[in-house]
Design a protein that fits this description.
This protein has about 350 residues and is of the alpha/beta class. The protein has helices spanning about 10-25, 60-70, 85-90, 95-115, 120-125, 160-175, 200-210, 230-240, 260-270, 305-310, 315-330, 330-340, 340-350; strands at about 1-5, 25-30, 50-55, 75-80, 125-135, 180-185, 190, 215, 220-225, 245-250, 255, 285-290. Helices cover about 45% and strands about 15% of the residues. Helix 2 packs parallel to helix 4. The structure holds nicotinamide-adenine-dinucleotide.
Length: about 350
């Protein structure tokens, strides 16, 4: 048997594939377009593993997806492929529309045709799992209850709007065509192989490089954090036992203000890799102009996933963040390789602080 995983050279997808193949020898076909966020180095340990088949290409390429489905007959498709960075969506929304909306649509079309041709027993077993974000629900006020699966969609950025559209398409393919779909909406992930444009890896990278740690606005925006391997275990659980057509929120009940996250990172780095001058990394914190339309608070209520499917995260924020800092300290070569010239230019444009 096999599974087709899209976008699995990116942050979460590569963690998912590494985790999958550490527990299973079911073949993984990894379809990834290798945008700036895709990095085959994440999967270097699988180079000799015949159970990992890498294919460079886009989910928007109907013919390619149809060919892969026909050739490998996967029992599931897990869709991680996306443009995923909010700031980039503000500067250039077009790619987000193309990949997250048009790409998901073409992928669904190819999967629908494939599913329609499967023999009855395989048809019943097949799953399409769409990986999405809590950002589709919009922004919460301080005292609002955390997002449940029945919250209204109120996306505020081109990124979250494009993900919301993809979620709706997935839902519609279930209701209209009977495609056996599952959707997960997860909070912010952190952990190994995270591209250093996002808050946590960016701050670790900049701290060690002696650069400013840029904090948007007052740093009091609240995000709900989940260690990436816990997200992977949730996806595995939903794939195994989720009810068709259902949505599952995934989160670790870890709401933190961005500034507190950066203070925690600085404290761990002060302990594990102290600055030569004995000062705290906190002195590198620099406040920068806030992101336009910046959502104030996200919080996920994961009760449905916990109660109905018995899933629990293995890490607390404290244990997960320590593991993450240690991973970046141990994998400086990976960080140096991904922080290429193009990445530096982007950072300079974004924060004026590359
Ligand atoms: P990422 O940007 O690190 O990786 C995305 C991957 O998709 C890259 O490898 C990229 O090359 C690939 N890709 C982009 N366009 C493609 C296309 N047209 N065809 C095939 N591959 C393509 O993203 P991530 O952080 O790993 O997120 C993965 C998924 O999880 C996304 O759908 C995202 O919306 C969702 N998600 C992310 C988070 C988070 O905190 N990072 C939280 C919740 C949900």
């Amino acid at each position: 048997m096999s599974i087709l995983v899209t976008g699995a050279a990116g942050f979460i997808g590569s963690n998912f594939v590494l985790d999958w193949l550490s527990q299973d020898n079911e073949t993984v076909i990894n379809l990834d377009a290798l945008t700036y966020a895709g990095n085959r180095e994440n999967l270097a340990s699988l180079e000799e593993n015949p159970a990992h088949i890498f294919v460079r290409g886009s989910i928007a390429d109907f013919d390619l997806v149809a060919k892969l489905l026909a050739e490998h007959a996967p029992r599931a498709v897990i869709n991680f492929a996306a443009e995923s960075h909010v700031d980039r969506s503000i500067h250039g929304p077009e790619d987000f529309i193309q990949t997250n909306i048009v790409g998901t649509f073409r992928l669904l079309e190819a999967v629908r045709a494939y599913h329609g041709r499967l023999p009855e027993n395989e048809k019943n077993r097949f799953r399409f799992l769409h990986v999405s974000t809590d950002e589709v629900y919009g922004s919460l006020n301080k005292d609002d209850a955390a997002f449940t699966e029945t919250n209204r969609y109120e996306p505020n950025s081109p990124y979250s709007a494009s993900k919301a559209a993809s979620d709706h398409l997935v839902r519609a393919y279930h209701h209209t065509y009977g495609l056996p779909v599952l959707t997960t909406n997860c909070s912010n992930n952190y952990g190994p192989y995270h591209f250093p444009e996002k808050l946590i890896p960016l701050c670790i990278h900049n701290a060690l490089a002696g650069k400013p740690l840029p904090i948007y606005g007052d740093g009091q925006q609240i995000r709900d954090w989940l260690y990436v391997k816990d997200h992977c275990s949730a996806i595995r659980r939903v794939l195994e036992a989720g009810k068709l057509g259902e949505v599952y929120n995934v989160g670790g009940w870890n709401e933190k203000a961005n500034l507190d996250v950066v203070h925690t990172l600085c404290a761990i780095l002060d302990e594990l890799s102290p600055r030569a001058d004995g000062q705290s990394y906190r002195t590198q914190i620099t406040f920068v102009t806030d992101r336009p339309g910046h959502d104030r608070r996200y919080a996920i209520d994961a009760t449905k996933l916990e109660r109905e499917l018995g899933w629990k995260p293995a890490e607390t924020f404290e244990t997960g963040i320590r593991k993450t800092v240690q991973w970046y300290l141990d994998n400086q070569a990976w960080v140096n390789n991904v922080t290429s010239g193009a990445y530096k230019q982007w950072l300079g444009k974004q924060y004026g602080a590359a």
